[in-house]
Amino acid sequence: MDTAAQHTERDRSSRTPDATEVDSVEPKDQEERSRSVFQGRRTWGPGKLAQAVPGGRITLTLLSCLVFLLLLSRFVLQPFEIPSSSMEPGLHIGDRVLVNKVAYRFGSEPRRGDVVVFDGTGYFGDADYIKRVVGVGGDRVVCCDSQGRIEVNGRSVDETYLHRGDTPSQVPFDVVVPDGRLFLLGDHRSNSSDSRDHLGSPGGGMIPVTAVVGRADWIAWPLARWMSLEQPDTYARVPAPGADTAQPAGGGTHG
User: Fold this and answer.
1) Phi and psi for 71 in degrees, rounded to 5?
2) Residues contacting residue 10 through CB under 8 Å, at least 6 positions apart
3) What is the DSSP letter of 87?
4) What is the value of pTM for the model shown?
5) Domain region containing 86
6) Are 29 and 135 in the same domain?
7) For the CA atoms of the chain, what is the radius of gyration?
8) Could you list the active site residues?
9) DSSP state letter for 29
10) Domain shared by 55 and 90, yes or no
């Protein structure tokens, strides 16, 4: 009797639980493990991060906006303030323009008529400048024709954007723009220090394309003057550099 009883107890303790017993135990264990993992992941969520920052979500939002604006200004759009009247009447002193820094990033280069901001260090002065592109690499730019207009590659251009009362230039010149460089002038010619003032300097007043920060595309401030800066059709009929862009007599520049 004692031996039979021992076998019976041993069989009961070592038997495999039936399906009902298994189902009643394992899901609870799985739920506890899932809840533990989920809670561990939530530790690094936005809510926890906001709690760790003084000021909470408001501060975190402001910081995110600041980082976005800094990246935007660094790589896409950068504001510049107009310091002088050299680009009147289009741009006034105190205007804030937005400069498109990706306009020339993917194979495109400045075109005649573009208003560009460039680093003048070593060429104009240790500062950023804003001027209009009049000649690109290979162009022959001459002032002036019989009617006092600038010629580009033998074609006279009517510069409708000039300041009222200004002539295209009181300084005569005849230049061929080297490849990879730009000949730039202000729109207020009588009040602009530009490529004409550096004809005898190293580089002949021509700015490297690599010095261009970007193209001025919009006036952003004051709000009453918000507008886009469109490229004029002044240079639409100017031919590509050709036979007329041969080196001018006298070795490059004169005037």
Assistant:
1) -65, -40
2) none
3) T
4) 0.70
5) 78-244
6) no
7) 36
8) 86, 131
9) H
10) no
